Please model this.
Amino acid sequence: MVIGLFFYRLGILGYGMLVRLVSFWHIKARLWVQGRKNWHSNLLSRFTPQGTPVIWFHCASLGEFEQGRAVMELFKQRHPDWKLVVTFYSPSGYEVRKNYPVADLVCYLPLDTPRNARRFLDAIKPTVAVFVKYEFWYYYLRELRRRQVSVYLISAIFRREQAFFRSYGRLYRQWLLLFNGLMVQDQASVDLLAEHRITKGVQVVGDSRFDRVWQAATQQTKPLEKVEFFCTGAAVFVAGSTWPPDEEHLHPVIDAMPQNWKCILVPHEIHEAHMMELMSGYEGRAVRYTAQSTPEELRAARLLLVDQVGLLLSLYRYAAFAYVGGGFGVGIHNTLEPASCGLPVLFGPNFTAFREARELIALGAAISLCTKEDFMRECPLLMSDQQKRETMGRLAKEYVAENIGASQKIVDTIERELK
Model:
């Protein structure tokens, strides 16, 4: 174990040096470095516990934040006297949620070293710590255990290919024993942990993302005037969080849409060069969301290219079905948002790591598309068959509704331990 920790620490320090080197030309690496500059003095100037109990949530990035958000807000609702600290590892989460109003402090998590862990925990003095889904930082976990701070992993999901369960994974499995509770999404995770004699504090609570997307879909979508002009007299499908391979497969579908159909395209990357490339591919038929278009121009357009973040969930209210991007890369993006809006969900082939995608397909509420032929068969079929769309959409919404409640189970468990 000592040798394993030596290489772990060496790897952490090497990673920090590499990010600093890359930061000279890579914007996300630069944000990662700048966000941690003088972190200790900045933290002391921004946050003082003053004897108030503190709950600390750590999220790798934006996806994990959204997964834990319903839990954070429910806990604060029940315990308004507690202070809430939220940390991020990635700029992708911090830069979007650094002004999250429910939290008393939002900051980057310093690199995982023994000294950083001691100084960080000295500064925030947590009563409870919650790690969301992923992120297993040994020195923070060890220091929390030494201080007898209760620490939980929530909405976790375990798979055989993870390092914990490999032949070399004994060290990593020891880290899991540093948690007071492992609150997992499914029974398969419980069974896998049990195979390796990890049973203490393990329980199935479900996935708190369902609570968040259900809450957002039913309470936080908003009408968008430009989109309403664009949708006038037409049925619409939304392609959200798309990458270039998704867009390449969608292009023939958009070209072949019936006259009474339109598309709202929401790329994952909205930098100017990519926007210009997409516009050139649909010359004369597309408008950009941020352009000063007249109502007439919006009504005449066949494609609305959304070049602004934060609108996707509200856009789903205008859709008849949704395509979710990422399935031709590392994995699909959020399928629960369109499902919670009662939409049929389509996505690419790389979905098997996502339990909700597999279950939506099994229910008949989602379809995976692998080739351009798949796109040209299934999309026109959905456009022409309203009953099929309604059936798939109903099944999708019922699926989300049946899976809400994880946040309450998580908070209930934490509260029991506090008594």
The two ends are 35 Å apart (CA to CA).
